[in-house]
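Researcher: Here's a chain I'd like modeled. Treat it as a single chain, no partners, no ligands.
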Amino acid sequence: MAGDFILVITEGSSLKGKNPLRDPRVSLSIVDFHDPYPEAQIRGRVVERRPDPKLKYYEAFSQKYVGKPWPYRDAAEPIVLLIETDKAKISKQPFEHTPPAS
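Model: Modeled as a single isolated chain. Structure tokens:
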């Protein structure tokens, strides 16, 4: 997140990068890998497509979430989508997560 925006990194030639040119409305669904029953749902719209030729945002995401430099330096048309949130909701299914036995 940056201020009041959600940032999504992608390549401009990908479907994720091209679809907002046709229709800026987006929805995101975020689920915890370890417990799939709680979910965050976000609706909004892409308000800016920001070029990232030096991979500044890619590098920041990689360092934050993986702790290593971004490994793919040959990204085709790297961009950042700035998403303004219109509606956000958190829900939880009425189940208890039981991790698989090892």
